[in-house]
Amino acid sequence: MNRIITVAVLNVLIAGVWAASAAPDSVLAATPSPASAYAYIGYPNDGQVVPANKPFRVWFGLRFMGVAPKGVKYPNTGHHHLLIDTDLPPMDQEIPSDRHHLHFGAGETETMIQLPPGKHTLQLLMGDDMHMPHNPPVYSKKITVIAR
User: Fold this and answer.
1) Whole-angstrom Cα distance, residue 12 to residue 127?
2) Rounded distance, CA 94 to CA 29, Å?
3) Integer angstrom CA distances of residue 39 from 23, 25, 78, 82, 147
4) 137 to 30, 67, 110, 123, 147: CA distances (angstroms)
5) Which class in CATH covers the domain with range 32-147?
């Protein structure tokens, strides 16, 4: 009987190792965040009119977490990414860096941006020391601004 139990335990262990090796590293290594943490855009407000083709200030807010620059791995910290006119990226991949995904890896908590005339969306997503979303992900609600 002991031999049957040993073989069964060994099979379970092998299956666990196989499943772990098949999972993407990012899923296994996702940086934890406090369940109560949230990001928000302090300015501009949802629905606000901002100047078109002129810089305006965007202020980032964060509760129940701290801000740390890229490359600094410290518990319950991360840095902001501003998403412009796009949806949240996949949560198991590095946050893209392009004109729709602005990185603030120096730990900035505000920026100046410029938008063409029209309706635009803004959203914040926190990333860890390597630009990966936390687990659970920490992001703001998506707001809309009108550039005129």
Assistant:
1) 34
2) 12
3) 28, 25, 11, 11, 23
4) 10, 15, 20, 13, 29
5) mainly beta
Residue boundaries of the structural domains of the chain = 1-30, 32-147
- Residues 92 and 23: their CA atoms lie apart, in Å, by 10
- 8 Å CB contact between 87 and 121: no
At 30 the pLDDT is 86
> What separation in angstroms does the CA of 116 have from each of 48, 146, 147?
15, 9, 6
Residue numbers in the chain where pLDDT is lower than 50: 1-27
Helices (H), 23-80: 25-28
